[in-house]
Write a structure and sequence with these properties.
The complex is a heterodimer of chains A (399) and B (236). Chain A contains 13 helices and 12 strands. By secondary structure, chain A is of the alpha+beta class. Chain A is elongated, with a radius of gyration of 33 Å. Helices cover 34% and strands 26% of the residues of chain B. The structure holds adenosine-5'-triphosphate and magnesium ion.
């Protein structure tokens, strides 16, 4: 009986192919939106966590900040603060003072504006950043503040094109330095900026030639794998508070940002976006369901005589009900399937364009397909019941 | 030749059947309490002026409608005590219908129209095909299995409808003006078919007609007037 109802449903929908297609458009869009959203959302989340782990596994950034209260000024860090943290806080692997400034760098007749970073010891190690050509800074170069630099892929491309930059000279601001290393490509950061647009010089060089002071902008810490982050962060705070002479009733005058927190912020943003799109999808599913209900009511009216004939021949109310329910379910399931196919195709293309991984959640795909069928049951129920309750004599008399 | 079973119990027994439509000023007494017996294998015609209650009687006999009052026994079932599903099952297994307007499914082939009652009986596909084809052959429509109704003449459509009515091997065939939309020659062809099924299969037939020469095919003619049975005429 069910098999026959299915076959008849498909035939009867096929007879009105265009109408059937237009009817399920809402379901197509609704289900499509859900699947596209989930697929792209997962890809984005994965891309974000990939990029965060490209920062280095467990990194904390420290920045001076204005304390709470009147008359507070920003007190910068010193190199000694970084050294103290490395010495006094267990679980800290690298503690690197970092200063940076956006400057124009020039080589030959090419110039390019980039982020010039004055890096202390352990900068690249903490960020697990490899040098693909040339070498890193020697401890003696870091100590002495020699004019050498390591550049990122973007800077190399902009200044030297396809030429080998190693051994060439590059002017940074007012001084000239020798390029000793080329960094591996890192691509976009989680925030969307180009991590390869960078030039590193020893911190001491930065202080002497660029900032002209011994202050450092920030401290980059890398924590050992498997440590209790909460505890280490707390220790870092205590050491810094003491070094910065903060009494118990004063607020921190610095800020701690760890990569886990960045990750949390980003995933909560993604989740919000997902919720929003989910609401859109929900509404179009509702509209789609109402569309199905509407077309099924039209169909019941159009086929009143047919229903009368079926009743006269021996169909029970339940048989008629089943017939129309199956038709509604086939309709919405079809819409769902089309939506899934379109969404997966779209997500695949979009993921390639955005350089996300394409990672469909097949569990959700199956649920979406079943759910679209369920929409057919819910919105097909009322029209089907109307069909089943028709009086056979009146239905037969219907023109 | 034995007179078809006027012995034993009637297959159909109507007792004091009333059918009242509407209420108050709109109240119409379509049937004012009729008694009618039909024995197995009988061929009965219902005649009478328009509005005299023939179709109302047929609808009640066909379990498409229920009497306002009175009793209807079909075989050993009291139909008035059945619910909708019970009546549907009687229509499915015991009754066959032929209508004035043919009432075939329009976009479906003759073969599929004839198969439809068997679909509801849950007959397997293969058997359904065979029986439908055989049924169409019996009404002289071999070779027309795959035509849709709009490709068939009125007489052919009515024969498809008869094939559909008999394919489920019902006990009773109910025909409300089966020749009402056909010309005289076509009408007599249809009547020849019905008479044959009545004789060969002992199919009980109750038929409504306005035409005396069509009614003449029946052995008994029941005359209606104003919702009552006026008289019953027996032919030789
Ligand atoms: N659904 C209905 N509502 C109200 N009155 C009805 C309804 N159906 C039939 N009637 C009335 O019942 C009476 C009997 O109608 P019925 O259809 O049985 O007549 P009939 O003998 O078949 O007539 P005809 O020869 O014209 O087909 C008529 O007066 C008709 O108006
Ligand atoms: Mg009538």
């Amino acid at each position: 009986m069910l098999g026959n109802a299915l076959r008849e449903a498909i035939r009867s929908l096929g007879r009105n192919a265009l109408r059937s297609f237009l009817t399920v458009l809402g379901i197509v869009i609704g289900v499509g939106a859900v699947i596209a959203m989930v697929t792209l959302g997962r890809g984005a989340t994965q891309a974000v966590s990939d990029q965060i782990s490209s920062l280095g596994s467990n990194i904390v950034f420290l920045r001076p900040a204005r304390g709470f209260g009147p008359g507070q000024s920003i007190i910068p860090f010193k190199v000694e603060d970084a050294q103290a943290l490395a010495r006094e806080v267990p679980g800290v692997v690298w503690s690197t003072p970092v200063s940076l400034r956006t400057l124009t760098v020039v080589a030959g007749n090419q110039s390019w504006s980039t982020t010039v970073v004055g890096a202390g010891e352990g900068y690249l190690e903490a960020r697990r950043w490899e040098i693909v050509r040339g070498r890193g800074f020697l401890p003696s170069e870091l100590r002495a503040g020699v004019a050498v630099c390591i550049i990122g892929q973007t800077v190399a491309r902009e200044l030297f094109g396809a030429d080998d930059p190693i051994g060439q000279r590059m002017r940074v601001d007012k001084f000239s330095c020798e390029i000793i290393g080329l960094l591996d490509a890192k691509g976009q950061s989680a925030m969307g900026n180009d991590q390869d647009d960078i030039a590193l010089i020893p911190l001491r060089t930065f202080q002497r030639r660029i900032s002209g002071s011994t202050d450092v902008d920030s401290i980059q810490l890398s924590l050992a794998d498997g440590v209790d982050n909460e505890r280490v962060l707390q220790d870092i705070r205590l050491v810094l508070r003491e070094r910065r002479h903060l009494s118990a009733n004063m607020e921190d005058n610095f800020r701690l940002v760890d990569s886990k927190e960045i990750e949390r912020t980003l995933t909560s943003t993604t989740r919000m976006l997902t919720t929003l799109l989910g609401a859109v999808a929900g509404i179009s599913l509702l509209v789609g369901g109402i569309g199905i209900m509407n077309i099924m009511l039209v169909s019941v009216t159009e086929r009143t005589r047919e229903i009368g004939i079926r009743l006269a021949i021996g169909a029970r109310a339940a048989d008629v009900m089943l017939q129309f329910l199956v038709e509604a379910v086939v309709l919405s399931f079809l819409g769902g399937t089309i939506g899934i196919i379109l969404a997966l195709t779209f997500s695949f293309v979009a993921a390639q364009k955005l350089a996300f991984p394409f990672s469909p959640d097949y569990g959700i795909v199956v649920i979406a397909a079943l759910f679209s069928g369920a929409i057919g049951i819910v919105f097909g129920f009322f029209p089907a019941r109307r069909a089943a309750r028709l009086d056979p004599i009146e239905a037969l008399r219907h023109e | 030749m034995t007179e078809p079973g006027r012995q034993g119990t009637p297959l159909i027994q109507l007792r004091g059947v009333e059918r009242v439509y509407g209420q108050g000023d709109a109240r119409v007494v379509a049937l004012g309490g009729i008694d009618l017996d039909v024995w197995p294998g009988e061929f009965v015609a219902l005649m009478g002026p328009s509005g005299s209650g023939k179709s109302t009687t047929m609808n009640i006999l066909g379990c498409l409608d229920t009497p306002t009052r009175g009793s209807y026994r079909l075989g050993d079932l009291e139909v008035t005590e059945l619910d909708g599903d019970g009546r549907a099952l009687l229509r499915r297994y015991t009754l066959g219908f032929v209508f004035q307007g043919f009432h075939l499914l329009p976009r479906v082939t003759a073969q599929e129209n004839v198969e439809l009652p068997l679909v509801y009986q849950g007959v397997p596909t293969h058997e359904r095909r065979l029986r439908a084809r055989e049924s169409l052959a019996q009404v002289g429509l071999s070779g027309r299995e795959h035509h849709v109704p709009s490709e068939l003449s009125g007489g052919q459509q009515q024969r498809v409808a008869i094939a559909r009515a008999i394919v489920s091997q019902p006990k009773v065939l109910l025909a409300d003006e089966p020749t009402g939309n056909l010309d005289s020659a076509r009408s007599h062809e249809i009547m020849a078919l019905l008479t044959r099924f009545n004789r060969e299969r002992h199919l009980t037939i109750v038929m409504v007609t306005h035409e005396p020469d069509i009614a003449a095919y029946a052995r008994r003619v029941v005359h209606f007037r104003d919702g009552h049975i006026e008289r019953i005429e027996e032919s030789s």
